[in-house]
Every structure is written in structure tokens, then in C-alpha cells.
């Protein structure tokens, strides 16, 4: 049995017309001799609508109930799509994370997949043409519904592809591949034929929401080739796959940005062993992802500690910092939400120097002030004022020769 996992995002299943386009992609897989396992997201806007309802009903919505609520979006999609397939004579049935089952941790709202038992799904494929699985959702060992974090249907799909031994995982969306930067922000962005798992990991973690970061981690771990392509055209998309020599020849392959950032500073905190642990320990216990961290040189036994967190976690972070300020005798807690991260990413950086200098010079030429810097082997990230995000993305895109009408730098 040749299985192909095909995932369709929110805009691809937004309405009946869109779902008919999805049906064509499924029909093609059937014609090519595959047994398609179709993973669907909620219809576009639905998850946001449900989250807004939770906020309307409760001042502090219970995370487990929020998951029970927002998981319904995907259930609607799979039921409707299965009906559509059946009307066209295709033997289909829908399944949720509970029925498969897709077992996850109990970290509601950001649950991690622990196990997929693919035997029931395989059995159903013996008597059906297509199985339609609700993305984004899983179930705890105790049977409670969980969700995998925003964009989590990508992860459901890649994890299912790994569990079922799918030849590849097709991710259908509203753009026809992974671009050098967000094509909706930069009209000169160029489609990449291939991108390595490591580059895609950095792009996803630095804000390129075309794939959820966990899906790329799964793909890399289980060596699942991921094909990002459009629901609305037939052009080949981008293969996310293992690195090769050709990829290394390119210095920078993409620019990502993330506006969901806030900067927090703890001023004049005593500079003694254990202070960093006291600050970052409680943040990690609350599941808050700290990204950039800068500690100033100490003066008179005190230092300033500055870091960034996702903007949605700012309220919780400030409450924790206020406790730590009082406990350590630090002077004050400052914060700023008008900031954004821009990143240049490329495996070619491993063997080249001067990439950071080039990025800084390009931002300087546009008079964009850099507030914080962080680097990894294949990435340079600058925190800047949010109002310069679009300009910074275009400037870096241009500086590294990524425009579609030019060669690469
Ligand atoms: P879906 O609902 O299909 O999962 P998403 O909205 O989650 O789709 O992801 C697709 C969007 O990702 C695109 O519309 C695009 O604006 C955005 N995006 C950001 N960075 C990139 C990039 N480098 N290449 C392609 N798309 C990108
Ligand atoms: N519906 C979920 C979201 O909007 C999951 C997904 O679309 O991948 O985040
Ligand atoms: Mg998505």
C-alpha cells in the first residue's frame, strides 16, 4: 500500500469552492495509485474566532477547555470534506486525534506528540480510498483533547507521514512554496526549489509561519521529505530535505521576520551567581520561550539583564519579573512591545565570515538602529524597532542578492 499524506491549511478549506480544489489534489493522488491520508486545518479564521469566544466568556480561560473548544474547528473541516468526497463516489471517512489515536503530552495549547499508533488507520485504508484526519489535535493518555500550538496541523501531517511511511508529506497552502522571504511582504521574493531542514528550522523559528517549527523537527528526525506547494496551482513547490553541496554554495537563502516580540529589562539587578537561574528558571517553568538574552557588564556589583519573549507572554513575564525584582532588590522592570526580529539564514554561513558585517552595514545604510543581536551557526538575528520591519526585510533581501531578478550573492 503506497500512502501519501496531503495536508491542506485554513485558506485551502475556507469554503466549498476551495474544498473542491482540494478534492482535485486528492483525486490526482488516487489516480497516481496512492492511498491518500488527508490532514485538514480549521477553515480560515475559525481558530481565531473560537479563541475570541473563550476570551469573551472567561477572564482567564482554562487551557484544557480552550483546547476542547478550538479543536472543534478541525472536526468541522474533516466532516464536511468527507461528505464532499463521498458525494463524488470516493470512499472516505474522517478520524480525529482521539480515534487514530495521536497521543500527546498534557501541555494544553502546546502539546507535544508522544506516539501515533498507525495500525487502526492502516486497517481503515484497506476498506476506504481516503482517510481524512483532523490536524492540530491530539489526546492525552487520560483521554483529554489537546492542541499542538498555532500552525500545528503541519506537525500532525509530518508526524503521520513518519508513522505511516508516506513517500513524502505534501503541505498545500496559499503560496506555491517556501520563498526567500514572505512573498506577501516582499514582491521580489523568489521561490526556492529546495531548502535544507536546518535552514527551514531557523526560518520557522524566526517567524516564517509557512511551516510550524515542530513539523520541521519531525521531518528532520524521521527524514520525511516535505513538499510545500499551492492548493490553487499545479506548479511544483519547494522540497524541504537533507542538505547537499549545492545548498552550501549559497550564502544566505532566506530572510525571516517576527513581530510577535517584546523586550524586557531588569535594571540594576545584583550581579552574583544564581541570578540568571532565578530569572530564567521561573520563565521556563511557565513554558515561556525566551529568545535573545543580553547581560550588560556589571558596575558597582549590579547589572542590567535584557531578553525577549513572545508578546502574548508579556503579561505573565512582567508578573514574574516583578516578583524577582522584589526578591533580588533589582531597581525596576522595563518593557517595550514596539520591537521585531529580522533574521538572515543560510547553511553557507558556516564556512564564510563577513555575513554579519554585511547585514549590519545594510541596516546602517537605511539608518535602522539595532537593539540586540544574536547569532547561530547558520543565522544572524537583529532586534529592531517594529516600524522598520518591512524596510529591514527588503534591505537584507536586497543586500544578499535574493531578489528574483538577480543572482545570489
Ligand atoms: P496555512 O493556513 O495553509 O497553514 P499559513 O498562513 O500558516 O498557511 O502559512 C502560509 C503563509 O506563510 C503565506 O501566506 C506567507 O504569507 C507566510 N510566509 C512567511 N514566510 C514565508 C516564506 N519564507 N515563504 C513562503 N511563505 C511565507
Ligand atoms: N487551526 C490551527 C491554527 O489556526 C492549526 C493550523 O491551522 O495548522 O493555528
Ligand atoms: Mg499554517
TrEMBL record:
Pathway: Amino-acid biosynthesis; L-methionine biosynthesis via de novo pathway; L-homoserine from L-aspartate: step 1/3; Amino-acid biosynthesis; L-lysine biosynthesis via DAP pathway; (S)-tetrahydrodipicolinate from L-aspartate: step 1/4; Amino-acid biosynthesis; L-threonine biosynthesis; L-threonine from L-aspartate: step 1/5. Its EC number is 2.7.2.4. GO terms for molecular function: aspartate kinase activity. Gene3D superfamilies: Acetylglutamate kinase-like, VC0802-like. Keywords: Amino-acid biosynthesis, ATP-binding, Kinase, Lysine biosynthesis, Nucleotide-binding, Transferase. It catalyses: L-aspartate + ATP = 4-phospho-L-aspartate + ADP. Pfam families: AA_kinase (PF00696), ACT (PF01842), ACT_9 (PF22468). InterPro entries: AceGlu_kinase-like_sf, ACT-like_dom_sf, ACT_Aspartokinase, ACT_dom, AKii-LysC-BS, Asp/Glu/Uridylate_kinase, Asp_kin_monofn, Asp_kinase. Residues 264-338, 344-409 form the ACT domain. Belongs to the aspartokinase family. NCBIfam families: asp_kin_monofn, asp_kinases, PRK06635.1-2, PRK06635.1-4. This is Aspartokinase.
Amino acid at each position: 500500500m503506497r500512502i501519501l499524506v496531503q495536508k491542506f491549511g485554513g485558506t485551502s478549506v475556507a469554503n466549498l469552492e476551495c474544498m473542491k480544489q482540494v478534492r482535485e489534489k486528492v483525486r490526482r493522488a488516487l489516480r497516481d495509485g496512492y492511498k491518500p491520508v488527508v490532514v485538514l486545518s480549521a477553515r480560515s479564521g475559525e481558530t481565531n474566532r473560537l479563541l475570541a469566544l473563550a476570551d469573551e466568556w472567561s477572564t482567564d480561560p482554562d487551557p484544557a477547555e480552550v483546547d476542547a473548544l478550538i479543536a472543534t474547528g478541525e472536526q468541522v473541516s474533516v466532516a464536511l470534506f468527507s461528505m464532499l468526497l463521498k458525494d463524488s463516489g470516493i470512499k472516505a471517512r474522517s478520524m480525529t486525534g482521539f480515534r487514530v489515536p495521536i497521543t500527546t503530552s498534557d501541555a494544553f495549547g502546546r502539546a507535544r506528540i508522544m506516539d501515533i499508533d498507525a495500525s487502526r488507520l492502516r486497517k481503515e485504508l484497506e476498506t476506504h480510498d481516503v482517510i481524512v484526519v483532523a490536524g492540530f489535535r491530539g489526546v492525552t493518555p487520560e483521554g483529554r483533547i489537546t492542541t499542538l500550538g498555532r500552525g500545528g496541523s503541519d506537525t500532525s501531517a509530518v508526524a503521520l507521514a513518519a508513522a505511516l511511511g508516506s513517500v513524502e508529506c505534501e503541505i498545500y497552502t496559499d503560496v506555491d512554496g517556501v520563498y526567500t522571504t514572505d512573498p506577501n511582504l516582499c514582491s521580489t521574493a523568489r521561490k526556492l526549489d529546495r531548502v535544507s531542514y536546518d535552514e527551514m528550522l531557523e526560518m520557522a523559528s524566526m517567524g516564517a509561519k509557512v511551516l510550524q517549527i515542530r513539523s520541521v523537527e519531525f521531518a528532520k528526525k524521521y527524514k520525511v521529505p516535505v513538499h510545500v506547494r499551492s492548493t490553487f496551482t499545479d506548479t511544483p513547490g519547494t522540497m524541504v530535505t537533507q542538505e547537499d553541496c549545492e545548498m552550501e554554495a549559497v550564502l544566505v537563502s532566506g530572510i525571516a521576520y517576527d513581530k510577535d516580540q517584546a523586550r524586557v529589562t531588569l535594571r540594576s539587578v545584583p550581579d552574583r551567581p544564581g541570578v540568571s537561574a532565578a530569572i530564567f528558571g521561573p520563565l521556563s517553568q511557565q513554558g515561556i520561550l525566551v529568545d535573545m538574552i543580553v547581560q550588560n557588564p556589571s558596575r558597582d556589583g549590579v547589572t542590567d539583564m535584557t531578553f525577549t519573549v513572545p508578546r502574548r507572554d508579556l503579561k505573565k513575564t512582567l508578573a514574574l519579573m516583578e516578583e524577582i525584582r522584589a526578591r533580588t532588590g533589582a531597581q525596576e522592570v522595563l518593557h517595550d512591545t514596539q520591537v521585531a526580529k529580522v533574521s538572515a539564514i543560510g547553511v553557507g554561513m558556516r564556512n564564510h565570515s563577513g555575513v554579519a558585517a554585511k547585514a549590519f552595514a545594510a541596516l546602517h545604510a537605511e539608518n535602522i538602529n539595532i537593539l540586540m543581536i544574536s547569532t547561530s551557526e547558520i543565522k544572524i538575528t537583529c532586534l529592531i524597532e517594529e516600524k522598520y520591519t518591512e524596510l529591514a526585510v527588503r534591505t537584507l533581501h536586497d543586500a544578499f542578492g535574493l531578489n528574483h531578478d538577480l543572482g545570489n550573492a
